[in-house]
Amino acid sequence: MSQSSSPIEVSTRAQSLDPNLPDEIVVIVLNGAERGKRVRLVDRLRVGKAPDNDLVLSDDTVSRQHCELERRAQGVFVRDLGSTNHTRVGRTAVHEAVVESGATISVGVVELGVRVEPRQAVVLPSESNRFGEALGPSLAMRTLFGVLERIAPTDASVLLEGETGTGKDVLARSIHQMSPRHDKPFVVVDCGAVSYSLIESELFGHERGAFTGAVATRQGAFELAGRGTVFLDEVGELPLDVQPKLLRVLEAGEFRRVGGNKTLRAEARVVAATKRELKGEVERGKFREDLYFRLAVVPVTVPPLRARREDVPSLVERFLELARKRDPAAASVTLSPSTIAALAAHDWPGNVRELRNVLDRAIYMATAGGENEARIVDLPVAAQASHGLAPCFEAGKSYREVREQYESDFERRYVSWLLERHSGNISAAAREARMDRKHLYDLARRHGLREGRG
């Protein structure tokens, strides 16, 4: 055999970034007794139960000589070798087929993931400090831009991981803008904001009468996007029972509306984002491993703002430009070098989104007061908490009165910070805080905070 079957450890990547080196294709056992085993597909890989195969699977549903995988220029060529329980791509039994990276092949009941790994993970940073709408002159961001510049023109699925507010949505939109699909629709599905009962309809649409309240036929995201891009924001919040349905769409390239019988083609590219660490979610059984592999054909981690403080001055200038376009009265507003330095020194738990909110508040106050210099009149709530400022006690008050005062102050600050992180979305904020949505709503109303979206 021309194939070595020794298990290997490889990093999660999907496309070679060195044009002088060919990609490596890795086959991963996703379930069964050999779950986690990985073998390289160099030229040809034979799979079966017999010990002379390159990849030996002990499951009873696997034939002695089950199937063969061959590397070709157009992808991975799969050939069934007359197996008893068939070789399937998605739900379709195949005799011969060509699959792409990210596909899942079923050998009996054992699932194999096909992934592309780079031989060399060194990426040359982009020469530009911009990628589409995204801005970042730091080395961390230019390195990220270097990856995305190569990936954007392809059809590869991209998974953007990182903290809330780092700009994953901006990067997703920029990937679409820099791709050949830029003139097609860009459709966003916020998997964390759509109610559990409607997420399937949001993705795939529904027929009239499919469920209570379905008074008319509705197109879902994949149908609306056509040959454009579907952006699955907060994909880590996707319910477990919906995940197999999304996987089938990605594998087979087709779907049905809820309550419908007609099969529709899914031709959109998928870009997903999450603040969760999906590998950990997979290990905890909260996210399907095969869906993770299908989404993470190209995984990208967006660094937090505290890891790229040198980006802050450029971001500040960009947000000032946007404010001046939005409001001509802000045309003369500037920030002093000391203020910019103070902003760069802050940790920004809410990342770029928090920075923009603080700047907008300062610009509005400067404009309202007829001032030319914007001042950061107060530290963000998160900054005060992170610096552990001690309370100032007052003589003459009882212990209970003081405690109630600071409990109320903490409550107000925490709820304000939480709602700001989620742009006023009560449901998403309650999920992060692990508290009842109604209780959070009552707290926000008690402290006179804006309710936002439900």
Description:
The structure is a single chain. The chain is of the alpha/beta class. The protein contains 14 helices and 20 strands. Helix 8 packs across helix 10 (351-368). The radius of gyration is 26 Å and the shape is globular. The chain starts with 23 loop residues before the first strand and ends in an 8-residue tail after the last helix.
Spell out the key features of this protein.
454 residues, six-stranded antiparallel sheet, single chain, disordered N terminus, five-stranded mixed sheet, alpha/beta, 14 helices
Strand ordering within the main sheet: 2-1-11-10-7-8
Question: Mind telling me the C-alpha Rg?
Answer: 26 Å
User: Would you report the number of β strands?
Assistant: 20
Find the structural class using helix and strand composition: alpha/beta
Alpha plus pi helix count: 14
Portion in strands: 15-25%
| Helical fraction | 25-40%
**Termini, distance in Å?**
60 Å
Please tell me the overall pLDDT.
84
Low-confidence stretches: 1-21, 379-390
Reported for the largest beta sheet, the result is: 6 strands, antiparallel
| Global shape | globular
